[in-house]
Predict the structure.
Amino acid sequence: MTVAALALPRDEQQPYVDIALRVARGELTADQGEEHPLDRFGFRTGPSLLPQQGLVSAARLAGTDPGTAESIVTLALMQLRHAADAEARLIARALNRLAPHLLPPLTTLAVHHQPWIRCFATSLSNVDGAGLSLCRNLLADDPDWRVRVNLARNLPDGHSLLARMRQDVNRQVRQAARRTARPSVLNVT
């Protein structure tokens, strides 16, 4: 639906944004519709990611509309309360589609319990905002190595945290910090 809706002119996309938001709110489910001959068999496929996919679709279609973005952020924060790893990853993808000025404060994202949201916060670390230095320091000491790798990739060349991250216990973090740092900054011995 999202791919098809994106092909439409901007003024014709709004009904699809509304549908995506209804899916994100849980108002439409995958099992609505006609009966299928295989419905008598039960399949366990894990939790449904449909609400989070609805968020991603709505965010892709929202553009820069502040009202829609506010609805997406509100739904995302509600869903994040009890989100499992796969759900949090999709929610982070949805938030990544929104303009940075429409997002929750960086400090809120940097201290979230889900690693995917903290990874997302590292990509926003170049955005001007209150607490930027504090957030970078918190994320540089994050217990999840993926967060530290993403921070190393998103820090500007020559940033003071890169020297510390080149000494990280995780090899992937060290490599990301070395790739980000300017060659003249590295001490090769």
Remarks:
- Residues 66-80 form the longest helix (15 residues).
- The two ends are 55 Å apart (CA to CA).
